[in-house]
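Render this sequence as a predicted structure.
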Amino acid sequence: MLAPRLILLKIGPVPMLLAFKNVSLIYNPKHTVLDSVSFSLNDGGFYFLTGPSGAGKSSMLRLIYQSERPTSGQISLFGEPLENNDPKKKTALRRKIGMVFQDFRLIPHLTAWENAALPLRLAGVEEEYVKRHTKELLEWVGVGDRLDAKPGELSGGEQQRVAIARAVVSKPRLLLADEPTGNVDENTALKLFHLFDELNKLGTAVILATHQSHLVEKFHKPALRLADGRLKRF
């Protein structure tokens, strides 16, 4: 393996959000996804994770979300190491994270409103708050007139907006977005990027993985680029 490189992206004296230290992810001797990756990100920021398809962006997000474990190295999130396998601690950390999946993962038989409200309902939040907050959020992301539509009745951009609403309905500290604009046209993609920017301004840290580097260039945000299992400045 190559010697580890450290990339620090810091924006002022704020708490640490995430740190990778010599993290590798190896599926087999011939398939190294991440190779001794080290970096740190400050809390409250908006960060792009870029690189070609297959570069390991989704794998990195899964490591952060704890749906995958590194082969070696250390990861810290919100100042806590992700080495502990205590299910209660993992659940507590995940409650601070919103996840926008590349394939949306909306439940087909539920309406847009029911999909977005699901995290609050599973957490046992008072129904009156669920109704009010979810409706306001769906209106804010631009699908307030599609509350009763099911996923199959929504366009790709509308489904993505519902998925975003579901990811942030519980006011997460961190939002992870995996290729959130891969299934929409460029105009819609730009609108979604601006939406993520607005969410960040409201206090949610954002890590957005995308291979659309030409769109990233339109935003003045820190960016990390994955290539050949290594992390480079964009």
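Summary. The radius of gyration is 18 Å. Helices lie at 57-65, 87-94, 112-122, 127-140, 156-168, 186-201, 213-216.
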